[in-house]
Amino acid sequence: MNGIPFKPGYLGLHRQGLLRKRAEHLWDRLQSCDLCPRDCRVNRLEGEKGFCKAGSRLKVASCQAHFGEERPLVGVGGSGTIFLSHCNLGCVFCQNWDLSHRGSGADCDPEDLAGMMLGLQEEGCQNINVVSPTHFSPHVLLGLDLAASRGLRLPLVYNTCGWERMDVLKVLDGVVDIYLADYKYTDPNMAEKYSAEARDYTLITQNALVEMNRQVGVARPERNGVVYRGLMIRHLVMPGNASGSLEAMRWISRSLPSDSYVNIMLQYRPAYRAHLYHEIDRPVSMEEYTRVVDEARACGLTRLDVDI
What we know:
By secondary structure, the chain is α/β, with parallel strands linked by helices. The chain has a single domain (9-305), classed as Alpha-Beta Barrel (TIM Barrel). The protein contains eleven helices and nine strands. The chain has helices at 9-15, 18-28, 71-74, 97-100, 110-123, 137-149, 166-172, 188-194, 201-216, 245-255, 286-298, and strands spanning 58-66, 79-84, 106-108, 128-131, 156-160, 178-182, 230-236, 261-265, 303-305. Strands 3-1-2-4-5-6-7-8-9 form a nine-stranded mixed sheet. Strand 8 (261-265), helix 11 (286-298) and strand 9 form a beta-alpha-beta unit. The longest helix is centred in the last third of the chain and has 16 residues, at 201-216.
């Protein structure tokens, strides 16, 4: 960073023994799991499973250098992406439904996770990118603590659907270097319809984005084009304005700095059970997408990642 080696926030917490304590705090909450807004209150340590179907053991679907993420995360060596299985949101159009809904993957321990993190660092990755970490946040912090004790020095990317409890985010303060967060819906009715009755998604995610920005600030690439710290927002444009894209751009411009990093995504394709909902059973038109980009610019947002 401008000639000064980057030091992840979690290293200081590790040295003080606080990273381990925070991990243990989250682990204790598995006894009556309230790690996400579903608030299932099942005892995952005893084998009970709630909405996400995750148990007490971490499940990893894949671990690799990923070159398909945002350019500031990829850099030269790729983003060290660890895809975690299961999901607490359950979108009907999920393109990774085999991981999120079916839970495909291999059971792992925090020790295994630490090894994956160190292997990605050895491979030359720019960061450690944990995907869908919410329901496995205790395991992530335990693995991170072990990896830090063995020389991990990469930024931690918390790649989330955005639907995060505020009290859990407070535990992550100082641990996460980069929040890569979705902002999926501005209409509670759409969140309820397409994401398993998550009617409170909009308000909870808006509050979460504000808190993430407070913790890590705006994501600004360094001279080498790589982001080491900050909030990066993803918004997926959906057919027929199902995701409330225009209002999403307006809310971001009102509530966050104008130079916030916003990736306006054109990647929507009908997947999983989208065919059951005729209004989203088609790709997004370029006209629909361009309208959102134009609105973002009209709102004064200056750091946009767009596909036109």
